[in-house]
Amino acid sequence: MNERHRTAEMPDRGAEYLLYQTLVGAWPLSAERAVAYMAKAMREAKLHTSWTNPDEAYDTALESFIEAVLANEDFAADLSAFVEPLIESGRINSLAMVLLKLTSPGIPDLYQGTELWDLSLVDPDNRKPVDYDRRASLLESFGGDAPPEEVAAHVDAGAPKLLVTHRALELRRERPMAFAGSYERLETGTDHLIGFVRGGEVAVLAPRLVLSRPPDWNEANVSLPPGRWENVFTRETIEGTATVGTILHDFPVALLARKVH
Fold this sequence. Notes:
27% of the residues are buried. The chain is built from ten helices and six strands; from the N terminus they run H-H-H-H-H-H-H-H-H-E-E-E-E-E-H-E. It is of the alpha+beta class. A hairpin with a 3-residue loop joins strand 2 and strand 3. Helices cover 43% and strands 15% of the residues. A six-stranded antiparallel beta sheet has the order 1-2-3-6-4-5. Helix 2 runs antiparallel to helix 3, helix 5 runs parallel beside helix 8 and helix 6 crosses helix 8.
């Protein structure tokens, strides 16, 4: 589809593959953003061009290729159709990664401005001012004990990721000794769900390999330690053994806190 846009076999196949990989990860992506990202990537790879020894012919061919590819309406439509089925799974992966980062042993490293879905590339693409007012307003709209469906209403804005970040940090503040304590595996009954318990007080459940989950994966049983557990994302109470489908019915990841009373 894009072969006709190449100039004297430039760019090379590795660069072309990286471009498609980048487009899938950050779609929709403008030609301006894509050109800036690829120029940096190619010059730092130093295979055909570099910052200290630029190859003008290669740089020009690469830029022309990217602009022509993204101006191709048939290609854009084909790419959009390819990306669409990946969006939900990608978002679940994002929530799982954030939850694991905030609950695994150690001190989580947070980057201001990435509290919502973030499809920015490396600099200069990621050097944008953070809209704190937007984040504060979004957090206020579903803050406190807002039901999952209220959060889901703002899914495209990134509300689920903000919710995970906010309530996980809130729980760390409320129960610091739990996160300074032990780290024990929690048997989940499926290879597609990571589970562990921190300090005997906090349980974490995060999906993995989302696209390859079998149809019956949510029928697997999770055996929680004794006690009553509250899911801080849904405010539901769970006790004993429950299926994955029951625990993750209203939200794709779970952070459970043992109830004191």
